[in-house]
From TrEMBL:
Keywords: Chaperone, Hydrolase, Nucleotide-binding. The keyword Disulfide bond does not apply. Belongs to the SIMIBI class G3E GTPase family. ZNG1 subfamily. It comes from Rhizobium tropici. It catalyses: GTP + H2O = GDP + phosphate + H(+). InterPro entries: CobW-likC_sf, CobW-like_C, CobW/HypB/UreG_nucleotide-bd, P-loop_NTPase, Zinc-reg_GTPase_activator. This is G3E family GTPase. Residues 241-335 form the CobW C-terminal domain.
Amino acid sequence: MSVEASGFLPINLLTGFLGSGKTTLLKRILADPAFADTAVLINEFGEIGLDHDLVESVDGEMVLLRSGCVCCTVRDDLATALKELYSRRERGLLPPFRRVIIESTGLADPFPVLSTIKADPVLRHHFCAGNVITTVDTVNGLRQLDTYIESNRQVAVADRLIVTKADLEADSKGDSLRARLRTLNPDAPILTAADPNLDLSSLVAVQSDVSPSGSLSQSGFYCEEPVRLVSSDGVPHQAAISSISLSIDRPVDWTAFGLWLTMLLNRHGERVLRVKGILNLNGEERPVAVHGVQHLVHTPVHMDGWPSEDRSSRLVFILDGLDGALLKRSFEAFTLAHMPVVASCQIAAAR
Ligand SMILES: Nc1nc2c(ncn2[C@@H]2O[C@H](COP(=O)(O)OP(=O)(O)OP(=O)(O)O)[C@@H](O)[C@H]2O)c(=O)[nH]1
């Protein structure tokens, strides 16, 4: 039975390690009119969620994007968020979206996400599995696969693997990454994000045959026996991972900030898994989005405007074995002298 005939709403899981390009790919999908009837759930790690804003939405937990897509943030319970979304659609409170894309956190082990959908009888009644799409960063991907079990799981479960940032690396590194991906997941097509002809429809696809129960066999969504992958030292890495969120309510000096970030990543890049933020810079009307992944700092981008009334600068760091309190103190010392910084640390729970 075709998906349309089945009445099930397909769910695509968009996963991939921290900073590997999930939101970038999501924005590309949502910008395509063919996907205007999409609902997006963004699952965020860190106290200050930023992806929601970086998709250029307005504030609030659930918003209607300019493209007509629905976007909301999941902080606690994925099953509840999906049911709420479906219920609002049925009651005519949301447009009749025809698919859901879940952007997982970069630290997520995809299996619990997938089994949440499988295990819940209500969800099984309304939703079916679309492709699991996994982004892998050419610059940092091999090291992340060497170090983080979650990265291996994200690759193993994929129906489509998207290699990102190939434009920033030599071809030989891209070739090594592809070879590694092939060993972890021999079946999934490996596609390149930089390819202007990347067929988004085949990414956001659904297996053509949907059984009435909604169960699908090919996708990792319905994997009964999760693939067992063991990290090199056998230690779960989540234990050392923490996040710190910094919020600064006065404009930031770009030069001082840039110097501080460069020094931080030069010294501790291995342990700064991700930094992303929205900055209110001295002399700038529009906010600037900054992104870093380990030693790599991406070119800062001026956003179209502030996503909400909040004009404070916000930064989220995800750290592996680096003390967030020390990082905050260093930030204050370098960039803000004695300006107040509101910060909080939390221990990560990979979802
Ligand atoms: N040059 C280049 N930059 C890219 C590519 N894909 C993503 N980026 C950049 O990488 C940075 C991180 O991209 P995001 O899309 O935010 O990554 P993410 O996986 O959503 O990050 P998290 O949600 O924090 O895990 C941004 O600065 C992007 O512009 C790519 O193919 N080439």
